[in-house]
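Quick question about two entries, pasted in order.
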Amino acid sequence: MFKLSIINSKVLLVLLFYSYQFQGQTGNLTFSESISTIMETASDSVRINSQIKLVKYLLNRNIDSAKVLANDVLKKLEEDNYSSLSFRCNKAEIINYLGIIDAKQGKMEKALSKYLRALNISRDVKDSTLTGLTLHNLGMFYRRQNQYQKAKQYFNEAIAIKESINDEPDNIAMSYNMLGVTYFYEKQYDSALVNYIKAKNLYTTELGRTKVNGNMALLFSSLKEFKKAINVFQENIRIFERLGVQNELSTAYLNLAASYNGIGDFKSAISRLDSAISISKKRGYKELLQKQYLCRSLAQKSLNNFEQALNDYTTYKLYNDSLNDINQAKRITTLEITNKFEREKLQSELELQAERVEKRWYFSLLIVTLALGTCIFVLIRKNTKIQLAITARKLQNEELQRKTTEQILEFKEAELKNEFLKSQIRQEYQVVLVNELKNILNIEQQQCRDKAIKSLIASLHSKKIDNQTDNSLNAYLDKVSPDFRIKLNNHFLILNEKEKNLLCLMKLGLSTNEIKDLQNISLASVKSTRYRIRKKLQINSEDDIVAWIDDFNTDK
């Protein structure tokens, strides 16, 4: 599988070349130019700038890919200790984008930390453009925290800096637009509208104008002009679908659903919310999911679908707690959540019971006293059972969630290690392949060049290039599990290098199939090597090899 993915990277280069040729005819070169430059350029500065452009392009299209690429760029900048002014600017910019990604995924404390770090670097290098970008992002952060005065302060500072340096109109428009949103949340609609108009007049792109139109539609909804709002949101959705901007598309579906709720068309609202939730789940937009589940809960409640409304509200609370109370215990118990939705449903029944109790008082004080005593006894007993059952269910759910979370974390950790390892080896492979191609292009005689191409094709089917990646694999294993590798080298001299490498890969949590694909060997070869290790170390077949080595007493 891994071998195939490496070969596919060569195919990707070819496809990107043709994509470049085609898009050159349409005038949209941004994506292809960035990919082509990253893969082919020999200059670190040009390559890093192209990677940052690609992160920006992926930000609202594939946030996971954007995060992986952004972290790789930051790691490169920090490991190689680039100190020139341009590289420090690159560092501030990529930290900004990582902060935006954290904010989209609900990791607000991490986002704030990155914004402040980027602001310090931007001011240190005296880069007004980056300073304006960072101030804008801080305004976005505090607006999401409902600290509107702070948000307006940062947005105004960002606008002042951007205008003083004659920044691109779209960048200035973006800050005016978000300043308008902040006024909107404060219900200062006139001020909001003034800033929306300024933003719309500045935007030069279709996508930028859709953002302002969406905010104006929200203003229409607040003024109960729902039909106007619905028309604007539907037009924006068509544009976002065509452009593939998933974050804005999910937000537009949410706002359209809220407008349908406003006119009482709850079924249409639920349909749009289903689409919004589907997109947000795929992209990991926790902040949007919180709002979308709450909106769908209210729509389900309006249709008397109380059970579904309760489920949606419970999910909303989970996202809300993870965003706002991540370091605190949950404030609302399951009983309180249930009572909120059961209250209206049972109100008429409770009133009827109260009337019956009142009538009993008129018949006989004795009968009422006995009935009341019996009722109190039954209710206390029933309530005690309910409380015990709820507590037991809550404990079971918490234990299940804890175990599930631990399993997910273990799986993700193994998956990330595996993907990182594959990425390291793939990069080594690409470097070798690019060098080979450059050498072939330098050959002047056609006959010699054809011979070299045939030789390269033959090497792709052999282990010639694979063997050049073995050193990268060994170096990576030494870095990832240094203590484990030292233990193997010092206390298990009976094992050969191949067996030690297999144990290191098992230590990383890779499966047998993943090890097979990674080392380009057969499944039987992996099992045979593992059997030899057990035989050499006299380990029983039911014992875990890695755990046995970890527990091995080296003091003997």
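Here is the second entry:
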Amino acid sequence: MFARLQPATWLPATVLGLGLGYTLITLTRLPWWSLFCVAALAGVLGARRHSGMALGGYRKAWPWSLVPLCLWGLYVYLADSFGNVDLGAVFFHLQAGIKDHGGSERIVAAGLYTLSMLGLLYAFTWLVRRDYRLRRIEPLIAVALLISNPLIFGIGQRSAAVVTDDGGWLDRHYQKPVIQPQKNPPNLLVLYLESLERTYGEPTFGDAYDDLRALGKKGVVFEGVEQINNTGWTMAGMIGSQCGTPLMPAGLVHDRQFEPLAEVVPGVDCLGDLLAEQGYRLSYLGGASTAFAGKGRFYEGHGFDNVLGLNKLKPRLDNPDYVNDWGLYDDALYDFTADEIKRLEAAGDGPWGVVNISLAGHAPTGFPAQSCRERQGEWDGKDILYSVKCSAWLARNLVERLEDDGLLDNTLVVVASDHLAMRVSVWDELTSLPRENTLMLLGNGLEPRRISRRASIVDLFPTILDAMGYPPRQHKAGLGVSLLENSTSTLLERYGKEKINARLLEDNALQHRLWEGLAPQRRENQAPLRD
């Protein structure tokens, strides 16, 4: 049988089968060996069709499907890199800037994907030029590839927002945050734990989450914090939790399309703006570059005095080589965070606020610090649960160290994941479970307890204000509702995630509010709120 297989026929068919098989195992939960089954089947079918090729002869023509195949290749690459493909993240990063990113491994992967796509396109072209039957149906294949591509579908949905009948539904739910001064205001420490979702606390993942579970016994733990659209990457999670709104990309409302954004969400007041007005001295510390995705511009434009990232912190390291692809390891970053809090405490000139974001849990494998390796033993370079356990332990260790040093008196501590994890080594296990973000509040007189509510990260903004003693009007800020107050329902409790996500695709009024100053004038006359 194998002797009769024509190499010039079965080989390009097998290449197409490899592409199809890889797509299937990337987008579904099929086992890895399914790839070879699909490729073998394609090769056999290609060889069986060899007799029909001779009837049609050779015709030099470019298939209609080449561009649709490239678009599918792009989608599979994004899905393989991040798990869920978020067009909002793609659009935002293209405009905010991707300078100094730490995804060097994805650049290598992109190169391999490009070479693979070139081979696949060549194989498809070879078959179309030699098989008259395939040539006849190939335009239909091109159409099918286009309409089935989630990228095209998503772009179509966003384009439909331009002509929607009601592009201001979410914007009418937006409430401008207003707070009143108080005596003896508390300090604030916000620890964002990169991708360290609460789902890691499930028994499936062993003891990876144990240190956060222990830390949560000292404060208020929130259950049911889901992820809505446009909050699923770092900048979106920060803006969602500090501004009370999902991050709607600037898109075509940006008036300088070929330049990076000069400001990030300048049209709304965020946590830093409110606290700066109350006399807070605010600092941001992160191990990655502040140039990436507009992070520095966001904090500098919203009330923060000190914005410290890789470029400013790396020279302070005892060992300048102790960095990873993205930036500083978390044990070094947390040492600098403790030093910054000591500096602010020593100055004694009003309350302070410090925001910090870790790197240890970053997809796909994480960046466990040296102190974790000394404590946890050897790391295989792939197991994300090792990195999760490291991140949880470092966060707990920092909080307890600051408590022991008396630096958290009269301080609210917020521990939260910035977003759900992207594609990691336990992706199939994560996606088979109900997924939730981590959120806990410690200190400032809060009684330890658990609160279970259907919420999203936008509800964190008014919840922080409430916990600090700055309750906003009606306990609302932005699109969020304080989770410490039961009298008002969150948007997810009232409408559900599906409706909120659908509205996010079409709400151009909220988009204009976020980017006011960089966009054409928003509509002043808005219709009354209707559900």
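Reply: The two ends are 66 Å apart (CA to CA). Confidence is low (pLDDT under 50) at residues 1-7, 520-531. Hope that helps.
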